[in-house]
Amino acid sequence: MARKALALVLAAVTVTAATLLPGAAGRSQAKPATAAPLAGTQWRLVEMQSMDDAQGTTRPADPSRYTLQFNGDGTVQLRLDCNRANGGWSAQPSADPSSGSLRLGPLATTRALCPPPSLGEKLGAQAAFVRGYRLNDGRLTLSLLADGGLLVWEPVQPAGQFSASPDPKLEAAIMRASPDVMGQGNAGEQGASRTRYVHARYDLNGDGSEEVFVYLMGPAFCGTGGCTLQIFRQSGIEYHLIDSWAITRLPIIVSAQRTRGWQDLWKRESGGGAPTTYLRHTFDGQRYVEQERVPAEPTPAGTPILVGDPGFADGLPLLPSR
Predict the structure, then answer these.
(1) What's the mean pLDDT when you consider all of the chain?
(2) Which of 116-125, 169-178, 270-279 bottoms out in mean pLDDT, i.e. has the lowest?
(3) pLDDT in tens, 102-140
(4) ∠ CA(301), CA(218), CA(235), 5° rounding?
């Protein structure tokens, strides 16, 4: 009975939130928040955990379409797929400031009809029932009223910063792209992976879905000229390889210039006694192709991707059994 009552309340909140249009009339008068660990942070959704076994855990196909930003002035902003929500937030840390009570809203939400599958409406409804927060291992977990479930978030990485967060679907795509290398021989005598990877996300064609830059490190993927770079495009919950380069130095530079709607890439190359240069790649409709080569100085203008100088120890082990 308690679960049914909660479901009815959630439905009522969805209807109420949907009647609020964005703008001054729908915004709450937020009060400054007091939880220093949350103020000024931005997160993206990892998963929604339900206490109902029939629903289980739901993960978004594209986490970048579901974000949560706590502003220092007590306002909160959510991206709910193709919709946006604005309102207020207030928190009271416990004796350990990594956890405490938390309230979101009331929220003013836009009402666009997002193409399926979308978690926007469900996430917007559940936001009104957030009652607590906990920071642990770099993730933020929000608990819902009456043990209604958990919302798990990870930090939004600065643009271009490398990440080593695991993504099983991405790992499966990496292995499909390198079947001759990513077999059982990738595991050493002690079962340790001889390949590691880091990744970064960036929307190259402006369609609202981020492409994934993957940097593979290990004996099979690195040489004197650098390591292997792969770029994947996400479609639903699957990843598809766009291009791969065996010799790459980081970072990659994404140019503001576009070809066929996709931003050009500058890839740094060096090694073998040759001077360091940048090679521009443009999109031909299917993949990136080489164009002009220029000296390394000055560095081409653009957004650097996979910054932070990742080494093998920074990468996530890539095992066939993962």
Answers:
(1) 84
(2) 270-279
(3) 999 899 999 999 888 899 999 999 999 999 999 998 899
(4) 60
Identify the CA nearest to 255 among candidates 246, 267, 245. 267
How many C-beta atoms lie closer than 10 Å to residue 83's C-beta?
A: 22
Dig out the tokens for 264 from the structure: 């050009």
118-148 burial code (b ≥16 CB/10 A, e <16)? bbbbebbbbbbbbebbbbeeeebbbbbeeeb
Q: What's the pLDDT tens digit per position in 39-66?
A: 989 899 999 999 887 788 999 888 888 9
The β-bridge relationship of strands 139-144 and 274-283 is unpaired
Neighbours of 311 (CB within 10 A): 10
CB 216 within 8 A of CB 193: no
The total of other beta-carbon atoms located within 10 Å of residue 76's CB is 23
Q: From CA 130, how far away is CA 70, in angstroms rounded?
A: 14
More confident residue, 246 or 272: 246
Rounded to an integer, what distance in angstroms lies between the CA atom of residue 217 and that of residue 229? Answer: 9
208/212 Cα distance (integer angstroms): 13
Q: Tell me the C-alpha distance between 290 and 282, whole Å.
A: 7
The β-bridge partners of 108 are 86
